[in-house]
Amino acid sequence: MNMQMSSEAAFRAEIAEFCKQNLDPEMRRLSDLGLSVGQDMAKDWQQRLVARGWGAPAWDAQWGGAGWDMRKLFIFEEEMAAHGAPQVATFNIKMIGPILQAHGDAAQQAHFLPRALRMDDVWCQGYSEPGAGSDLASLQTRAERDGDDYIVNGTKIWTSGGHLADHMFCLVRTSREGRRQGGISFLLTDLATPGITRRPIRHFYGAHVFNQFFFDNVRVPVANRVGQENAGWGIAKSLLEHERLFSARHTEARRKLGRLTRLSREVKIGNRPAIEDAQFRDDLAKRMIELRALENATMRALERLVDDGGIGPYASVLKLRGIEVNQRLDRAIVQLLGPDALPAEAAWEGDALDGLIPDEARNAAESRYWWRGPAIAGGSQEVQRTIITKHILNL
Amino acid sequence: MRFAASEDEVMVEDMLDRVLSAARDSAPRIDGQAPRPAPEELRSKLGDLGVWGAWLPDSAGGSDGGPRLLMTLARGLGRVPAHHGLIGGCVLPGVLLARSRGAEAAALARRIATGAMPVALAAMEPGARWDMSAPQTRAERDGDGYRLNGTKIHVAEGATAETFILSAGEGEGVSLFLVPAGTPGLTVAAYPATDGSQWASLRISDVTLPATARLAGPGEGAAWLEQAFTLAAFAAASEILGSCEAALRQTVEYLGTREQFGKALAANQALQFRAADLHTDIEMLRSQVLGAANALSQGYSLRARSDVAAAMAMAVQTGDLVAREAIHLHGAIGMTRELGIGYHLLRADVLSRWLGSAEHFRATFLRAAEEEEEAA
């Protein structure tokens, strides 16, 4: 056990050293504030990770994976977040990469995996449709065979980062027979293909976060179908089990808590630092305690994953609570800032606020607005409650 | 440290389940209550099986089971309503007696491990809430011994104790004394708490004690008390966890069987979601109680103290919520003493009134977490 602990400490130290050597302070600052680091910085960071052999640690070794066990993968993610490393190319590394390794054919793997690893291609996910949100299986975008191509017609919506991507993996309907889930296929699409148009969707706080894509007689080669025809549903659901540990998004919550505690020494309530105010201290303790419990819950999930190979519906418990914890931390930051949470993120582009309010006020309100989304996406909180009801409580 | 139960813990859990359900099934319905195990029999049975004091060190009659076994025991007891007396009669005096090096203390600890309750701790005072660091009860030197004057209140298991551990200010510090219940000048008055358990107040008027009665001197007493109440809070959080688990299980069963408007209550999404939220709260409490058990197992550190305070802050809130929801989701039958689901609320309340509110434990948590950060 001691040996295990000391090798774990050595691994954590190795990651800390890598971040010290490679993480640009500006990049760290932006990602600590919950801001995107931009495509250039993201690509630069990914190159550094790839050079170290850490570009996609969970992948198979032949495609650049690190060959770590689940515990080590978990520590890597946690430690990277703790040092302020940005999450880049998540759709490349965490979604399409593992899916192609599990379900893609040799040609797809050889072409797409190295490009995804290096971010030569940037992927986005085309699952949701205007009529298919939480009820994803009701999706209608159809792909009809025409020789060696599919002709795709329909629309995909809520595509996060679609404006930064050049490729989309999407779910399309290839059959209307039998179960709705049984008529869905998984297609890889080059967004430069004629017939694809994109409409930006502004978030309610103003940022360009989402997109809608329209497919008008778009030709996609049959060679770009992953797996068998009508087998797409199972492929889309086969997210790597260790990623489900991060359903709680506890690493993001830990960063927010860091921001809250730093601000509590800087922001004053009644001429004293907030950290000396009784009401604030009680609120801070609430946030700290629920995050500590969430981290313990995540460690329990990791233990179960290592023991049993999966965590089952427990992931729904983690997601349900983890998003609430994140949302409440965002709210606490905004409340602590008070009037200083008023300026929009764009206010930092000029010098109007220089030296007048804490730099960590930047993007505080926007983060709160952005975090309304995860409670709706990826299976809404109500979908998670239904899973808990049906599969844990057996009601 | 692992979170999953060890083989020993699984064995103790099974044993507890058997003993508790047997005790409950054979218990009479007294005064319209849901059947409840008789406390003395329950304790002596668990003492005979070596479970009651297993968490105590070997030298104090236990088997070095530590916090994990204490958690297992308290959690199991929480699942079945009973005035078991674990915290007041075993944990609080047990921690203090185990820290002492005296022969009398060791003998008392060994009796406690058998399931007897010879000792109660009298540390709380009127109007002082949960602050036990500056007692008004004073100990003055008197010849070779001590003379004590003051008042104590909310003494758990005090109505039946043979001996009290009394805290008293001595000089600038807090000392602890062993005082037999029949000592002249000591008046014990029993009263019931809202959950039906028996408590006592103590009036201490010129009680004289030999020098050997002092269990801990003024340089030690406050720290000993803090450790004893930390372990008590840990046991209480574990008990509330067990109580929540039992209350939700019983409620979910009821939702599945009770029909209204031509369908099971469980068919209503509003009720399903309430149950799902309770389950999520309990999962978080379980995770934190386990985290606290593991931290305590590695020693009585600042981290262990903050983890216990976090666990109890959550337990107070979750215990209250789950108990209220369990009553409500049962409908009118939930209001009755006969069904007894309301006992979970009575018990969670008493534990919180006694050991500290959620706010109290959050403040304790934050101070320990800050000290820990400064030390790092």
What characteristics describe this protein?
A: alpha+beta, Butyryl-CoA Dehydrogenase, subunit A, domain 2, Butyryl-CoA Dehydrogenase, subunit A, domain 3, four-stranded mixed β-sheet, 12 helices, 46% helix, B: 376 residues, alpha+beta, Butyryl-Coa Dehydrogenase, subunit A, domain 1, four-stranded antiparallel β-sheet, 10 strands, 51% helix, 17% strand, globular
The proportion of strand residues of chain A reads 5-15%
Q: Indicate the mean pLDDT of chain A.
A: 94
Number of domains of chain B: 3
Tell me how many strands of chain B there are.
10
Widest sheet, order of strands of chain B:
1-4-5-8
**CATH fold group of the largest domain in chain B:** Butyryl-CoA Dehydrogenase, subunit A, domain 3
CATH C-level class of the largest domain in chain A is: Mainly Alpha
**Annotation field: number of helices of chain B:** 10
Oligomer: heterodimer
As residue ranges, the low-confidence spans of chain A are none
Helical content of chain A (DSSP H or I, runs of 4+): 40-55%
Order of helices and strands of chain B: HHHHHEEEEEEEEHEEHHHH
Layout of strands and helices, then pairs:
The complex is a heterodimer of chains A (395) and B (376).
Chain A: H1 2-22, H2 25-32, H3 39-52, H4 70-82, H5 90-103, H6 106-118, E1 123-126, E2 142-146, E3 149-157, E4 167-173, E5 184-190, E6 196-202, E7 208-221, E8 225-226, H7 232-237, H8 250-266, E9 268-269, E10 272-273, H9 278-308, H10 314-337, H11 364-370, H12 381-392
Parallel strand pairs in A: 1-4
Antiparallel strand pairs in A: 2-3, 3-7, 4-5, 5-8, 6-7, 9-10
Helix pairs in contact in A: 1-4, 4-8, 5-6, 8-9, 8-10, 9-10, 10-11, 10-12
Chain B: H1 7-25, H2 39-48, H3 66-78, H4 86-99, H5 103-113, E1 119-122, E2 138-142, E3 145-156, E4 163-170, E5 173-180, E6 186-192, E7 198-209, E8 214-216, H6 221-257, E9 259-260, E10 263-264, H7 269-297, H8 302-329, H9 343-355, H10 358-375
Parallel strand pairs in B: 1-4
Antiparallel strand pairs in B: 2-3, 3-7, 4-5, 5-8, 6-7, 9-10
Helix pairs in contact in B: 1-2, 1-3, 3-6, 3-7, 4-5, 4-6, 6-7, 6-8, 6-9, 7-8, 8-9, 8-10
